[in-house]
Structures are given as structure tokens and as C-alpha cells.
What does this fold into?
Amino acid sequence: MAVVLGRLLGIAFLVCFGTGLYSHFLQEPLPWMVFPTRPQTLYQVSQGLHITTGIVCFPLILGKLYVVYPGLFQTPPIKNFVGFLERASIAIFVAASLVQIVTGLLNTYQWYPFPFPFKQTHWALSFVIIGSLAIHIAVKLPVISRYWTRSRSFDAEGNLLLDDEDLPLTRADVAVELAETTREPVGPISRRVDGLTGRLFDWIDSARPRTDSPKQARVSRRGFVATIGVSAAAVVALTAGQSFRVLDGINVFGPRKNFVGPNDLPVNRTARAAQVTDALTDADWQLAVSRGAVVTTYSRADLEAMTLHTVDLPIACVEGWSQMATWRGVRLRDLLDAVGAHPDEDLRLTSLESAGGYRVTEMGHEYAQDDLTLVALEVNGKPLDIDHGFPARMIAPGRPGVLQTKWLSKLEVI
Ligand SMILES: Nc1nc2c(c(=O)[nH]1)N[C@H]1C(S)=C(S)[C@@H](COP(=O)(O)O)O[C@H]1N2
Ligand SMILES: [Mo]
It folds into this structure.
């Protein structure tokens, strides 16, 4: 069970790490990075996977800790240097993982009852986790490779031949070992496994002294697997609807519900929270588009008078929730062409918002030049609500929600 859960956790952590790196670099790209803009739902899927996989880690980690719990209290606590490395890496791994998934989950509810910044901590801990996992696997590598390379076989007397230990291991040796063990009985398992492993179990079973009455395991294996399986399925089913439409109907715990909010779309940060007032967005509002000394300005009426395009693109928040919406507005490229921007030039976006980490952001040329990237004026058939970024907001394919800037005021070619 420890190995099975360990493998599942290994996969889950790699999925979280990979999708996490992708999300991180979308928000803080290295200078040479260029990102794919298709499929439009790429970030929605990758971040949905990140959050959902993170949530599945809860039952998996608790299950794994339950299984290995007795091993955590061995005596003596540390046997040798490798043993020390192993236990230290596990201690760090377990602690970091628990902090990571708990604070990650709280972040999806935008609840921060801890004294450190979420984003930086989440980023740093991911390397602590992957690093200590690598040490853990490295320490276990001899066991792992022995498992995959060992050829098990039996001699004519039915003694087990192992290729790297004192050979052969006799029935009598095993009987002595078994008499001292208090693990669950192996009998019933042998009927369910085939091949060499099955023969190995049969063989061990046949060597077990008949007088031996092993203590019952704490929980039956079947009950344990069912508990982990059902909890994992339940936490996914009851939250994944925030990221994956098909499960929307049973989204009980996910903090955002589809279609609930102005324009039938949830709001992340309200105009009020961002201190964007009606006065800032009234008829005097203007969008300035510039490249060096060349500046053009547009009122909302000017933008409405341009060729408008309609696109279906999701808002996909880093916190996991996402929703598809139908946007109508001016193609960004048309505005950039008007100031003579080159196809390989990036863009800086400024919002009316007075403070906040996403007031000023940058957009790579791959998004700026994309047909689907709009300065949106309407969503879902109605003018943008002020909470969705009225008078105008950016919407581009495959970008995290945080970069879909609301209440635009300035676009500068850089
Ligand atoms: N100016 C500005 N734009 C912003 C934000 C913000 O805080 N300020 N929040 C972003 C985040 S985190 C998300 S998920 C999306 C959500 O868009 P919505 O509120 O219209 O659904 O807007 C983005 N645009
Ligand atoms: Mo977001």
C-alpha cells in the first residue's frame, strides 16, 4: 500500500509541479519565453489540473502517512548516515507537503490565516518538496532497482533462489522469520495474484508455521483501499466543477459557482475592492495606446464605433475556478497597428486601479498579435459590468485570469 500510494503521490506531485511551473512562468516569464496561445483553454485545463490534483493529494497523503506510521517510530531513530538522510528528507517532505496543500487549498478560498505571503511560499516550497522527494527516491533507489531487476525462482526442493543474497533461502529460514512477524496473513492474497509474485506468496504461505496466529491488521486492505478511493473520488467530484464544466452540478465545496455574478460570470476582485469608482469610468474615460511618442486615445464611443469581433474565451483564475464567456470588442492588433507596432513587440498594460499587484502587467507579442485577443467592451451579450472591467478589459487566449486586466487605461508598446 505504501508503494502504491507513493507512486500515485509521485505522479500527483509531478503534475502539480509541472502545471505550477507553467503557471508561474506565464506570470513571470524569463526574457526568452514565448507561450502557446492555442488551445484557448490551455491554461484553464492546466490550472484546473493543478488545483484538482492538489486536492486529491489530501486523501493520498493521509493514506500514505497512515500506512507508514509505525515505521516513523523505529528504534533507534537513526541507524546510519543514509538512514539519517532518508528520515530527514522524509520529515522535510511530509512537513512541506502538508503546508503546501493546506495553504494551497486555503488560497482557492482566498483565505490567508497565515503570516507569510502565499505566492512566494508556494513557489519556494515546491522546490523543497521536489528536492526532498528526489533525495527520498535516491535513497530508496537500491531497493527500487533490486525490485525491478530481481529474478525470483525456486529450486527443485521448492526453496526460493534470490540472485543477490545468501542462496538458497530455505523454507526453514522463512518459517523462522514468519514466526516473528505480526503482519496480516498473506494467505488470501495468493489466490489473487498470478505469476511469480503469486508463487512467491504461496511459497511464503506454505512455509508459515501452522501454529502461528498472526494479529489482525489494523484495517482490512480492501477497506483501506475503498476508504482512500472513495475519499479521493468525493473530493474531486465535489470541487472539480469549479474547473471542469461537466462536474458543475455537484460542485459543493469549490468556492466559485459557474454563472453566478454580474454578466452571468463570477467576479474575482470587485471594482470596489480595487477602488475603481464610477467617476473614473464615466464618459471622460479614455484608453491611451502608445508606441514611443506616437499616442492615440479612444473614448468608449470611439471603440464601439470600430470593427467589433466576438470570441469565446475562458476566465481561468490561478485559484482554480474558470468559466467560458462570450466577449465582444476591438481586436487588440487593430489598436497596435494604428500606432505602428511591430509584430515582435511586447505590450505593457496599465489599469485604472490605484494599487494592487496586477495594476501594471506585460503581455508577450504572441498574445498581443493573436486574432482572439480583444479589448473587450461586452461580455455574454451585455456591456461589461463595472466589476468585470467596464469601460474596457483585456481578454486573451490561454492566459491566467490575473493577466486579463480589467479597467484598462493605458497600453504601451515596449
Ligand atoms: N485591474 C485588475 N484586473 C484584474 C484583476 C485585478 O485585481 N485588477 N484580477 C484578475 C483576476 S485574479 C481574475 S481571475 C480575473 C477575473 O475576472 P472577472 O472578475 O471579470 O471574472 O480578472 C483579473 N483582472
Ligand atoms: Mo484570478
